[in-house]
Amino acid sequence: MPQPFTPVASLPVDPVNARVHEEGWQSWSPSGAYALGDKPYRPTNDNWATVCYRPGVSVPEGTFQGEGLLALDPGDGSPVRLWAAVDPIHEVPSVRLVVTDGAAHVSADGPVREWTGTDIQSVLADWASGLGVEAPRPAPTVWCSWYEYFTAVTEDDIHENLRAMDTLDLPVDVVQIDDGYQSALGDWLTLSGRFRSRADIADTIRARGRRAGIWTAPFLVDPSSGLAARHPDWLVRDADGGPLHAGRNWGHDLYTLDTTHPGAAAYLTDVFATLRTEGYDYFKVDFLYAGALEGVRHDGGMDALSAYRAGIRLIREAIGKDAYLLGCGAPILPSIGLFDAMRVSPDTAPHRRPEADDYSQPGQDPAEFTGAGRQWQHGRLWVNDPDCLMARPAVETRERWAEHVEATGGLMASSDRLLSLDTWGVETTRRLLTGVAR
User: Which of 35, 68, 148, 244 places its Cα 20 to 30 Å from the Cα of 297?
Assistant: First the structure.
């Protein structure tokens, strides 16, 4: 049951110079600082509210709201304030701020503590440093198939770009196959008709001195998949007993795998152990919000956030400590301590503006806004992933996007058909990949 909001603090603010930082729920939820007169970014429809924001949580008009974290720079020279979850891994209260008569009034629906600092990014960084998370290991450099080929990627596309890396002398550590190799969401070990052998591709990548990486959305299940047909009991249920809907994407309704079910847990372990045995040691796990959705699970005593963390731990145990694990679409605070790297923004895109100006949707503008707003996480919670460099001529404002990716100092990944790059694209890609500390 939702908890009532109780007052936390009230303090005067400068209506012109004050700024409020909202921390969004998951990777794709808008996060960043706003002036008091700004209208914060909110979902434009119910589907995006589930897929990209905190499901079941709405925000009243004229209210700022952070999920587990909200910071205020009063703008009058007084210290910046941060209200942060007491136990951010297990309980993430919503924190609200409204301004009336020149004063900010802060409330929360769960326990929070107050921190002070000199500016918004530094007080967030100080809070993160105080959590005692082990410093992340450096990220490898990556080539990813997604932003050129999307779900139409073929095995031959991977081989072509693998050869091009050698021809162009690009320092790519990991060749990551993204969405499109599998037959359906949930059927991760069954290939689409565009691929012949995962193991053979991994062998070829490794023979060229690079590492093999692969994408999954481990908690999503397509209703038309073999998994859904064979094991409907492996799905999280809604209050009426039907499969819990995890939103809609790719033109499909989506279901959620119940990793508290012994059969589903064993399947998930087998998927990742198999991929690891085939030679993959870099894993991008995506759409992770689904694992933290509220629903009826096989283990009725396990809450949604505990089920989510248990599911990620199953993956880590299957791939081993040495494999590199990148999260995406993940609830931010409940993911602390689980990942090597984390996507800290919505998807970028070859275009700058997002659909319907929803800043959870793909576009360079929203990726820059939230990526910059979460820079405080980098090196403290994990390596930040600002999303992939796209340097081909067809990409809008490619120079500006490259500057943003470089400035983050985080995970560096190229996502072009490499032979489509012009001189600027090749030189920029090589420079950004070369500049990563190994």
Answer: 68
Q: What is the pLDDT of residues 356-397, one digit of tens each?
A: 889 999 999 999 999 999 999 999 999 999 999 999 999 999
Whether residue 115 contacts residue 150, with contact meaning beta carbons closer than 8 Å, is answered with: no
Return the closest-CA partner of residue 408 out of 360, 321, 353, 341.
341
DSSP, collapsed to helix, strand or coil, labels residue 383 as: strand
Cα 384 from Cα 193, distance rounded (Å): 34
Closest CA to 349 of 299, 394, 403: 394
Phi/psi region, residue 75 (left: phi>0; alpha: psi -120 to 50; beta: rest), is left
| C-alpha distances in Å from residue 222, one per residue of 31, 185, 188, 361, 398 | 29, 5, 11, 21, 34
Average pLDDT over residues 257-261: 98
For residue 246, give the nearest of 17, 49, 64 by alpha carbon: 49
30: left (phi over 0), alpha (psi -120 to 50) or beta: beta
* H/E element, 112: strand 112-117
pLDDT digits (tens, 9 = 90+) for 148-201: 999 999 999 999 999 999 999 999 999 999 999 999 999 999 999 999 999 999
Q: In the structure encoding, which two tokens stand for residue 207, read together?
A: 């023979």
Report the C-alpha gap between 409 and 93 in whole angstroms: 30
Cα Rg, the chain, nearest whole Å: 22
In sequence order, what are the beta bridge partners of 213?
A: 176, 282
Of 291, 386, 380, 306, the closest CA to residue 345 belongs to 386
For 377, which DSSP code? G
The answer to whether 126 is a known catalytic residue is no
| Residue 211: φ, ψ to 5° | -100, 150
CA 65 to chain centre: 20
pLDDT at 323: 98
179 is catalytic: no
For Cα atoms 332, 337, 343, give the angle at the middle one, nearest 5 degrees: 40
Largest CA distance in the chain: 67
Give all domains of the chain, ordered by start, each with its CATH number.
6-129 (no CATH), 142-434 (3.20.20.70)
Of 258, 340, 347, 365, the active-site residue reads 347
Mean pLDDT score of the chain, rounded to an integer? 97
